């Protein structure tokens, strides 16, 4: 099984939230003290929410069982905006040659 998806990057999401909260704080004292353009920019940043985030996290996932009985699980992702990366790779020998126990014994 091999699957590729796109998602929202957790690092980008956190940075939008921080920028949004910072802009909200600055708006309280900025009125009349910053240019009209800067005030409009702060309003637009403060109004941003996670729905405006681009779907820039490329995700790849692969899960399979080999004929030798090794279960392989791989997950990898890369953000095209900020470069965030994460990988998870796990292999497990599930000892498939062991005879299953009968339910009637
Ligand atoms: Zn990102």
Class from secondary-structure proportions? alpha+beta
**Main sheet: which strands, in order across?**
1-2-3-4
Major beta-sheet overview: 4 strands, antiparallel
Q: How many structural domains in the coordinates?
A: 1
What's the SSE pattern? EHHEEE
Shape: rod-shaped
Residue share in helix: 25-40%
Assess the beta-strand content as a share of residues. 25-35%
Quaternary structure annotation: single chain
Distance between the termini: 36 Å
- Topology, number of strands: 4
Tally the helices. 2
Summarize the structure.
By secondary structure, this protein is α+β, with helices and mostly antiparallel strands. The protein is built from 2 helices and 4 strands. It has a 4-stranded antiparallel beta sheet with strand order 1-2-3-4, with no helix packed on it.
Keywords for this structure?
alpha+beta, 4-stranded antiparallel β-sheet, binds zinc ion, 105 residues, rod-shaped
Give an overview in words.
It is a single chain. The chain is an alpha+beta fold and 105 residues long. It has one domain (2-93). Helices cover 30% and strands 32% of the residues. The protein has helices spanning 10-30, 36-46; strands at residues 2-7, 57-65, 70-79, 85-93. A hairpin with a 4-residue loop joins strand 2 and strand 3 (70-79). The longest helix has 21 residues, at 10-30. The mean pLDDT is 88. Zinc ion is lined by residues 9, 11-12, 79, 81-82, 84.
């Amino acid at each position: 099984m091999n699957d590729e998806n796109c998602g929202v990057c957790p690092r980008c999401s956190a940075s939008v939230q921080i920028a949004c909260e910072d802009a909200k704080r600055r708006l309280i004292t900025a009125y009349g003290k910053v240019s009209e353009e800067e005030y409009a920019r702060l309003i637009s940043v403060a109004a941003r929410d996670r729905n405006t985030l681009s779907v820039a996290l490329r995700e790849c996932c692969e899960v399979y069982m080999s004929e030798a009985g090794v279960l392989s699980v791989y997950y990898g992702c890369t953000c095209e905006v900020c470069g965030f990366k994460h990988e998870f790779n796990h292999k497990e020998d599930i000892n498939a040659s062991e005879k299953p126990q009968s339910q009637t014994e």
